[in-house]
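Lab notebook page, bench 4
Experiment: in silico fold of construct C2
Operator: M.H.
Input chain length: 1203 residues
Purpose: comparison with the prior construct
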Amino acid sequence: MTKDTIVKRLLESNYITSEEADLLLIGANQKIEIEDKYVKKEEFVKAINEIKELVALIVPNSTSIVPNSTSEKKHIQSLENKISKEDEELISFLPYLIAFPLEKTLSEEHAWTKINLLKDTLLNYLKFLGLLTASEFFNSPFKDKNIIASFYKNLSHPSFGSWNAFIRETLQFLIESNHEFFCPELTEYYKKVETGKKRKLYSGEIEIIDSTGDIQLKKQQATGIGMLINFRNRYLGHGLTLDKDTSHKLWGQYYPIFQQLLAGLEWCKNYSIFKNEGKNTWKLQGAKINQVEVLKAKDNIWLQNKSGEVINLVPFFIVPGEVALSEEDTKLLTYESYTGKSIKFFSPEGIDKTTSGRILERLNMLIRNKQEENPYSPVDFTKDLFKDRIAKENQFVMQTLLDERKVIKGIYQNREEIEVKLRSWIGGLANVFFIAAEAGSGKTNLLVEIQRQYKERGFDSLLIRACRMAKNNLKDEICYLLNIDSKRDLSDYKNLTQTKEEPIFILIDGINESHDEQKIWGDIKEISKSFEPGLIKFVVTCRVNSKNDLDRFNIISFENNIYSENNEDTKQLSDTAFWLTPLNMIELEGAWNTYITKNKKTTNPQFKFKDIADYDRSLYEKIKNPLILRIFLETYHNKPLPKKGKKKLKIWRDWLSSFKEEEKNLLKLLSRKVWEIDSNELELEELLQDDELEPFITDNKVNAPYSRLLTLGWLSRFTKGNTIYISLTVEGLLFYMLGLFLENDLKVDVKIIEQWIGQKSVIKKSAIESYLIECAEKNDISLISELIDHGEHTLEIAIPSLVEFTKTFGGKKTLDALFDNPTELDWLALKKLVDGLDKLELKQLTKELLIGSKEINRLEIENQFILGFKTLEILNKNDKETYFKKFNLKNKLLKSNYFLIKSLANYYRDSAKYEEALDCYKKLLLITKKQFGYRDVKTALVYTLIGIIYRKKANYDESIKYYQKSLEIRISLYGQNHKSIAENYGNLGLAWRSKGEYDKAIDFYEKALNLKLKLFGDQHNSTALTYSGLGGVIGEKGEKDKCIEYYEKALAIRLKIFGEQHTSVSTIYNNIGFELRKDEKYEKCIEYFLKSLDICITLRGENHPVTAVSYNNIGAAYGKLKNYKNALINCEKSLTIKLKSYDEDHPSVGKTYENLGDIYKGKKDISKAIEYYQKAFNIFKLKMGDKHERTRLIENYLKELNS
């Protein structure tokens, strides 16, 4: 604490005179030996004693520093005589709240003190206008949540500027609502000085806080109020002491502005504040209050006009007796701040008092009342009213999200895959779309974006934040937001009942963040059942760590109401939920480019997005959340990547280092508080009761740590009920700081970690992970090893740190630490470590671990087998065959373990051993039958998989047989109206088409189409798939116009959902080209085939079987144009790729042989033509039968050429 700060406090408290202050301020840059900015009372007393000694040296006759009341009175009297008549006139009609400090200001001789008192008087001026505005609102019949939100935001702990913001917003609302003002002069005055077109503007340098939280000076014009707020902030808002000359200059510059503002309050002559206290009535006007004839009023303090009409001022103005203060202490107390659990009052005389009694309850009641409206009846609730309500509520929610930095305006990266699904489910019967959102996946941003998209398409939606619900259940919350009667059924309100094609959407953000998630889930089910299917649709997001987290939400008897594209088991929510992960790489790069384009001055590092891959690919995982990406770009703005191996980029460490020391201290204290209560929702009232935190919260300096962190959005302030809460906005930073807290302040061992894990706290779990990562990066793996060996429940929490250890010190050192004394738990840890590194695309480290563990892997237990199969994937052909010989295929695990059998099948599949792969599927079928039964959905799924294998092998009869088995089970489980049934119908249609039995194929395709239209509507990709299949088989029958019609329907849907670059779009282009070829429009068909080829190569690569189909079709078309050179080039490319992918007797190979025969026939090379036709004939006869039209066609070609 500097000497000048202490002198200021002594002078304001009348412990020293102005002359003594001037003497003490000589050499004011010296320091009293108290280094802490925020000092305790005893430290301040010690400082005062030091000042006493200084005064004794400077003023020899001064033996103590005490107020001299007699001399002080004489001094003030002499100064009062210096107050101008103009100012005396002002004082006479101003309310006591302003007049008392104004007189004190004008009477002060000491220049520096004088401008400090001017600042205090300015605050009281703003308070008077603000509290009068608040009284107008709370005494009005109007109710508005936005004004209540403004009250919480601006007046919970008001600054000079926030008082003005509240006045502006509230007066505007009251004017727009045609409020009959008790004091109409208030609006006229404020318009004249602040908001009107003819307001007086002053030019000068204005201190502003930029987007990075830094203070800048900018030359611009401002109103009188704006200039005075700038005066306070710029010169008195930083805790600095000004010299005498500067103080005089500022007084001369700013008091005339204030004087003009005060002169405009002349209308206060017609409005007086009165108080009743001690059976007496007092008039609080001027610097001295006067007792008047006793008046009666509802409250003991009020504002009264000349006509005797009154407006109550409680609870914003109170009499001293309300808070056990006497008349001698103070004459009046005015509102200062509010937490929801207490109100702080301050008097013009400098007395403050906090209360949580009757006055607090009155304010809380007023706030609650202003958020409760008289509900509309079903008759009164019109469509227009409904749309107005949801627009208003959505705007309110959007503003809170912006304030809390949950959404960043103008910055959103499209999440195409999930957005497509959220658009596709419109028109179906399902009521609930459930999104399981991983940490940092941007679930709130997604809901805000999809609400925008729904609005564009004319759909009504209501966004509800589960963590901010005002009511205890969802139905009451919806009724509250729409202002309809909660005692009535929602379905009674006909304007809520829409159509399947135009439903109403309720978007629930973060069901897990509510105080009772199970109640909300039950409400969703009940509300859904009260409407016809598909009329009301809920999009629900839930933060999860694994699928198991979802199984707490029961879906029994509600399965068919939940939208899903999963054709497996739907007995639990985890089988139907859509997974939302952090940004994928394309999305992440898009967001990166958006930031650096829009904010080049603050978010533009000296390296590119792709450069991170070579430096540390795991960074991509850490920045996949849009907010964290912004923090990353700001932290490393204008900085290069360190040289590889020299230094790791640690986002949270580096970002934290960018904060000022006092801000770091505040964040550390708040983090510790979060740990203590195990919640990132800290009551403001509790923080004010904390000796270490209270000075931070109440510091009213410009850009003080607390206010700056709030302004930047790194701290969030919000309300629940009437209570104000503070939270740390960025969880990653919170968990990092908690990790440091564990490292520095607590003794951590396996036992205490096990205890913390048992508390099932996300905060504690994340803090432990952060702490263990710090240990790992310092080459201290002892605790991590102990956790692995202690059991699976502690092993899990050690994996993230084990990943970091491997990244830092390599695979060999990790294996040495893990397998010092290997156990089954160590193999489990290695398996999870490899999975983690695979997810980060750290293939080299994965390879190092797998190769390093290969020789000690005995391939006996489950995790050893899993790692063994992973090792096979990275070996070359010869080493793979050699290593595979070590696998004991007679091991019982390979006979019963579902996952291992699947892994074995994958090995055979990748080795083109389709028979062995099919054997594995059949083993899998035996396991599912034994474990789950013959009529289980898993058994049906395996039947489908086997059917697909047979179709790929062109064994269509067997394929159809297995499809039929799957269909029978699914119908018995689900009935006729389930998406898996539609899938089976589609598979059967494709199989019958492949056999050449087109009428049967059409029958199944039409069944699939009818069911999909019912379940999904006509804008779903699954429906497009059936349109495409149906078009293809109709084309085979020669109905080319109808065929093209179906293809174009499918193409329109897929282009709308996926855009141009998607495999399904490529398929449609190919199909359309095929039909054009049959119509002999060869040049046009080649255009479509080339479009298909370009997409295939981009998405699938050059050597994919589907790419081979495109080459084949292009070659055939060139053959029809007699461009045999290009025809041969493309068909030979096709044949080479197909022979790598299929057996030589596959029908697709036969098709290319047929095309090559056509080409050589056209070239008059008869022997070559016969050779290829014969190969095609042999395949078609074997796979399709001698009666298939394709077989008969080739047979005729051969007869013709051989004749």
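Observations: The chain has a mean pLDDT of 87. DSSP finds 53 helices and 19 strands in the chain.
Next step: discuss at group meeting.
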